[in-house]
Amino acid sequence: MVCMFVLGACSFIWIMLFGGIEDYKLYYKLDVVDITLTLFIFPLLYLYFWALNTKEKLTWKQYIWFLPGLVLGGVSALLYLCMGEERSIEYIQTVIENQDTYQFTPGTLQWLLYLVSLQIFYVVFFIQTIAVLFLSTLNVIRYKKGIQNFFSNLEGKSIENNQAVLIGLFVFLFIGLAAAFLWGASPETYYLAKYIIMGLTGICVFYMGYHVYNTKFISQYISYTERELPTEENEPLEEVNEAHINKMFLLFNQLIDEKQMFLHSALTLDDIALELNTNRTYVSRIINEEFQCNFYEFINHKRIEYAKELMIENPLFTQEQIAEMSGFTHASTFSRTFKKQTGLTFRQWRKR
Question: Which of 195, 222, 249 is at the close of a domain?
Answer without folding.
Answer: 222
